[in-house]
Amino acid sequence: MEGGFVLEDKPKVEKMAKNSTGASGRKMLADISNMQRKPTTSIQDKKSLPNSATQKEYIEQLQKENAALKKLLADKSMIIDLSGNELHKLRITLQKMQQQNLQLAQSNSQLLAELNSGKDRLKLLQHELGCKNGILIAKQLELEGKRKNKTCQTNDIKKVKV
Fold this sequence. Notes:
The protein has helices spanning 2-20, 25-28, 41-48, 52-161.
């Protein structure tokens, strides 16, 4: 019957544990008597109070650490200043490059416009030249036709006279 009692008791503990904290029953019933306690401050103060010679050494060590930290801080400040100067130079260089890029883009656009204008003019001149060549060929054919007619007429006149 004790086995039955444990089985009945265990679900109740789990329900209660889950309802209260959401954790399992074992965690709720953990034994905290084995946990170490922090020593009281009075015991720590007594142990940590050094004698006057140790205090001087400790003060000297702290002063050395403080001096080292001040040097590191100065180095850090110097690096930040140098980085700031370098960043400023880079910004100026970037602005110069952007201005130069803008000028190059403008000159490129101007050259492209001149090139397109030149191509259009070339097309017009080629068309004009083609028209003139056509007219010259037509005139030459017309003159040749007139010559042939003249030679035919002179040949006909000579035949008639004979």
